[in-house]
Design brief:
This protein is α+β, with helices and mostly antiparallel strands and 554 residues long. It is built from 13 helices and 15 strands. α5 (241-249) runs parallel beside α13, α6 packs across α10 (436-449) and α10 (436-449) runs antiparallel to α11 (480-486). The longest helix is centred in the N-terminal third of the chain and has 24 residues, at 123-146. Mean pLDDT is 81; it is low at 112-130, 149-159 and 537-541.
Length: 554
């Protein structure tokens, strides 16, 4: 046996552990200890009651910020003791600070003997006194502005405009589930290069010729805007009979140019908008909701101070949008030669009924398709507004739009009647700053349709306080590609944003979805919504069933 074995064989002796109960002091007449421990003797004690409310642990403010409404809220029942009051016995009466402040002269002495005024007497002295008083007034005005006491500055401060929450274009319901949130900085980095020009599938409609006499209109030779009653069709994707037929044989994604431009230019938008997406098999249909303001043109959406007046005001956002849409419709028809024969495509307008034949606006629809790679083919309905003869007698297709001036003072713009003929670039630059999203969408629509020129009209109110009468102050035209370069519109990024949304939607199950721009944040959200959302009639359900049958029919 080794030494270690002997140690292991020794018996283990167990010792019992006893619990020592602490001494407990019982105070039958009160609460707390009966005797004061030695370490707390000779320390000042301030009595307090268990009923006292506890305030701050340490209140260094004293009586400076007392709650006047509840003066005795935290007062003790035993009164305010002075056991912990601090007294400084050292005498500081002999200590003085050196006063380095500049002695302020009275107003009548300021500037009297300033530069070039030492020898002035009589009227000169009075003039100097008046200058001093004016300077004093300016100083007081600056002080009031600095303290925020000037009402004008508080209302029209450009650097700090008032934050007003915008309303969403549609109310998000509790049964909607969020699939994806896409913020604008991430969307701005997307890119899908090398997308070739669209290929025509079908062209239909008829166009009137542009009247070139409007190119000579200027501020001194203005023309009143006429009211032209013509029908403008704004048919959504799934209600288009041509797209229903094309969905059987052509394409994967179906959309209109207005919806497509809204998605591609979403990073420039501030107002809320929404688009309904239906996924049926491997096909996507992008729609706008019925009876919405989707087709209204925004006014000063991207301005530093966008319109914020009430709904009853002449310059409220909605009334301005109605006015801008009204101007665009009338201007696009007034600048045409309505008495001459129209340029017609092989197919007629698919939305015209027999009783509407003579009242339809000049418009042509070009159904085009694009290859977005990975087996995704986009079919879009694009529009032209007019045609004109080019320099070599060739036919050029036009997109005609109107920029409108409502109130240059409220819009922080330049006066068109003063600057349009001499500084048209400054006027356009101001419009690009205040309406960046609208101009970008117009440019995208012109590029998608393959328009040769985009015509801009400058239309202003005849009177600032009357939104029913307008005058045309001038026109301007650009090639869409050159104008897109001028406004920094990157089509590779626009195609990348569209492709990102398409890829996300194609991964979802069949059903209905909604993409909405957040009204107050730079982001868009994709929601999964029930199939019966936004439907109230049986006819709409029948239309959807018909669309499903068309999509799966070969």
């Amino acid at each position: 046996m080794t030494l270690t074995d002997e140690k292991e064989a020794e018996p283990v002796v167990e010792t019992e552990v006893h619990f020592q109960a602490p001494a407990i002091q019982n105070n039958p007449d009160g609460w707390g200890p009966c005797e004061l421990p030695d370490q707390f003797r000779d320390i000042p004690y301030q009595p307090f009651s268990k009923g006292d409310r506890l305030g701050k642990i340490s209140d260094w403010t004293g009586v400076a910020f007392q709650d006047k409404k509840f003066t005795n809220k935290y007062a003790s029942q035993f009164g305010s003791g002075s056991q912990y009051a601090y007294y400084h016995d050292e005498d500081e009466s002999t200590f003085h600070l050196v006063d380095t402040t500049r002695v302020q002269k009275p107003p009548y002495q300021r500037g009297r003997f300033g530069k070039n005024q030492r020898n002035l007497r009589g009227r000169g002295g009075q003039r100097g006194g008046m200058n001093a008083l004016q300077q004093l007034g300016k100083l007081k005005l600056r002080e009031r502005e600095r303290k925020g006491q000037t009402k004008r500055w508080g209302r029209n401060n450009k650097n700090n405009p008032p934050n007003k929450n915008r309303d969403a274009s549609v109310t998000v319901r509790p049964d909607w589930s969020t699939i994806e949130e896409m913020d604008f900085p991430r969307l701005g980095k997307l890119s899908l290069p090398n997308i070739k020009d669209g290929e025509d599938i079908l062209c239909c409609g008829s166009l009137e010729y542009y009247d070139k006499t409007y190119d000579r209109v200027n501020v001194k030779n203005e023309k009143p805007l006429q009211r032209i009653d013509r029908i403008f069709h704004t048919v959504t994707t799934t209600d288009d009979p041509v797209i229903r037929k094309l969905s059987k044989t052509e394409g994967t994604v179906f959309v209109t140019d207005a919806i497509l431009a809204t998605i591609m230019c979403c990073t420039r938008s501030n107002y809320s908008w929404d688009i309904v997406i239906e996924k049926i098999g491997d096909k996507l249909f992008f729609d706008k909701r019925d009876n919405t303001e989707f087709d209204l043109l925004t006014v000063n959406e991207t301005s530093v101070e966008p319109p914020t007046d009430d709904g009853n005001s002449l310059n409220s956002p909605r009334n301005l949008a109605l006015e801008a849409t009204f101007i665009n419709h009338n201007f696009s028809q007034q600048v045409l030669k309505s008495s001459e024969p129209r340029f017609k495509f092989d197919e007629g307008n698919p939305f015209v009924s027999e009783e509407e034949e003579g009242d339809v606006a000049s418009v042509a629809y070009r159904y085009r398709k694009w290859d977005l790679n990975n087996g995704i083919t986009l079919v879009c309905r694009c529009e032209h507004d007019a045609v004109m003869q080019g320099p070599n007698s060739e036919t050029q297709f036009l997109t005609i739009k109107a920029l409108n001036e409502w109130d240059s003072k409220l819009a922080n713009g330049v006066e068109w009647r003063q600057k349009l003929d001499t500084q048209r670039g400054a006027v356009l630059a101001n419009e690009l700053r205040n309406n960046a999203c609208k101009l970008a969408k117009w440019t995208v629509q012109a590029l998608l349709a393959g328009s040769d020129q985009i015509k801009f009209g400058y239309v202003s109110r005849a009177s600032v306080r009357d939104s029913s009468k307008h005058v045309i102050l001038g026109t301007q035209q650009y090639k869409p590609i050159e104008f897109a370069r001028q406004i920094n519109l990157n089509m590779d990024n626009a195609w990348g944003i569209l492709r990102c949304i398409i890829d996300i939607c194609l991964k979802q199950k069949d059903g209905k979805y909604l993409i909405m721009k957040d009204p107050n944040k730079p982001m868009i959200r994709l929601y999964d919504i029930p199939d019966n959302t936004f439907e109230s009639e049986d006819e709409e359900e029948e239309d959807e069933d018909e669309l499903v049958n068309d999509a799966f029919q070969n």
